[in-house]
Write a structure and sequence with these properties.
The protein is mainly alpha-helical and 121 residues long. It has helices at 32-47, 70-80, 97-104, 109-116; strands at residues 52-54, 65-67.
Length: 121
C-alpha cells in the first residue's frame, strides 16, 4: 500500500498500539495539522483492507478514528485506548484459517465452544 497521502499502518508488536491515546481538545480537531491527519487517515483507510482506522494504527496516539458501524467504532476506540482485539478474544477460540475451514466452517459456534473448551456469552 503506497501512494500520495497514504500513511504506513503499524502492525501488532509496535508499542504505539499499546499506548492509551493522548486526549485531544475538540477545538484542536479544527487545526490544519489535525485536518491533514484526518484526510490522510481517510485515504489510508480507503486504500487498506478493512473498514476502519484509528490514529494509533498509523503511529499517532490520539483518539481520532474513521469508519462505520458500532463494532468497528468499538474496535477503533480500543486502539485509541491501547488495546487490540486479541485482548478481548477467548484465546481457546482462536484457529488458523485452515483449521477453521476444515473443522468449523458451516457448523454452529456452540460445537466449537464445546470442543475447544470455551463458553459463549
Amino acid at each position: 500500500m503506497s501512494g500520495p497521502g497514504i500513511l504506513p499502518i503499524v502492525e501488532c508488536g509496535d508499542p504505539v498500539l499499546r499506548l492509551p491515546a493522548e486526549p485531544v481538545d475538540p477545538s484542536d480537531l479544527r487545526t490544519s495539522e489535525m485536518q491533514v491527519l484526518i484526510a490522510r487517515m481517510r485515504v489510508t483507510m480507503e486504500a487498506a483492507p478493512g473498514v476502519g482506522l484509528a490514529a494509533p494504527q498509523v503511529g499517532v496516539p490520539v483518539p481520532v478514528f474513521s469508519g462505520w458501524a458500532a463494532r468497528i467504532v468499538q474496535h477503533e476506540v480500543d486502539h485509541v485506548r491501547g488495546r487490540l482485539y486479541l485482548d478481548r478474544v477467548e484465546l481457546r477460540s482462536l484457529s488458523t484459517l485452515g483449521s477453521y475451514a476444515r473443522l468449523w466452517a458451516g457448523r454452529p459456534t456452540e460445537d466449537a465452544a464445546a470442543s475447544l473448551g470455551f463458553t459463549l456469552q
